[in-house]
Q: What sequence folds into this?
């Protein structure tokens, strides 16, 4: 298990390096493949030895080798954070055929959350391809484990969350963006595959977290009732959290209403 944990964590750090490129380029409509990464200060292409995740930033002390321009600490933080998130996903999902699917969810969660916080948008270039990717990965996991019911739940979850968000968007235009609606379907796939309790808890937590984030901003005057507050990070964070807390929360609720298992 330890070698796998190291492998998954290192992979996450490497993926985080790529996500830095995605976060910067995708909202601007730029290719994530070319041109190679360069210093925004002097335009000099970044050398391979200066492009090692986390390590290069520490060695260079957060500055460009050529012009000494500061390099944002966000880069190593995203790399290290993605590595830690990948390790956490391994701890929750375990060694299973579903692991690649949920690692993919973790990766797009990092990218979409950062982009939404920065530009208040959830790009179709990331969200829409996530549907076929999730269907293939989750469908493959169901096929290999013989759990067809999980895939059916995933489809129902996608339709349910997409429909709920579409209804909210229609009833209150401007209350949320279409990007949130499209993302809801993707998250419904993952939550539904995990279980009905995860789907219910993940759907509820998104609005709870969103409210807890918005309330201090409103009370402090940093945002008004018409302010656009990104909801994508709350949706993504709630979905990932639901994988951990859904089972104990649902068990607690069933016990509270007297429907839990009895000795």
A:
């Amino acid at each position: 298990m330890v070698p796998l944990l190291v492998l998954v964590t290192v992979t996450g750090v490497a993926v985080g390096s790529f996500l830095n490129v995605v976060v910067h380029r995708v909202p601007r409509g730029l290719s994530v493949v070319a041109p190679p990464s360069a210093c925004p200060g002097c335009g000099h292409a970044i050398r391979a030895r200066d492009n090692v995740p986390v390590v290069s930033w520490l060695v260079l002390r957060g500055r460009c080798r050529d012009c000494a321009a500061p390099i944002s600490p966000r880069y190593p933080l995203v790399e290290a954070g993605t590595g830690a998130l990948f390790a956490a996903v391994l701890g929750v999902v375990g060694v299973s055929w579903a692991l690649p699917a949920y690692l993919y969810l973790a990766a797009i969660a990092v990218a979409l959350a950062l982009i939404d916080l920065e530009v208040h948008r959830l790009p179709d270039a990331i969200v829409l391809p996530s549907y076929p990717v999730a269907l293939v990965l989750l469908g493959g996991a169901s096929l290999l484990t013989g759990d067809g019911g999980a895939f059916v739940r995933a489809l129902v979850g996608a339709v349910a969350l997409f429909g709920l968000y579409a209804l909210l968007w229609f009833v209150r235009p401007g209350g949320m963006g279409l990007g949130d609606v499209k993302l809801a379907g993707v998250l419904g796939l993952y939550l539904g595959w995990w279980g009905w309790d995860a789907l219910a808890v993940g759907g509820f937590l998104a609005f709870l977290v969103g409210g807890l984030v918005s309330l201090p901003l409103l009370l402090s005057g940093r945002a008004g009732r018409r302010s656009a507050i990104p909801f994508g990070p709350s949706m993504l964070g709630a979905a990932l959290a639901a994988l951990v807390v859904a089972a104990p929360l649902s068990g607690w609720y069933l016990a509270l209403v007297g429907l839990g298992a009895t000795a």
Observations:
- The chain has nine helices and no strands.
- The two ends are 35 Å apart (CA to CA).
- The mean pLDDT is 89.
- Residues 196-220 form the longest helix (25 residues).
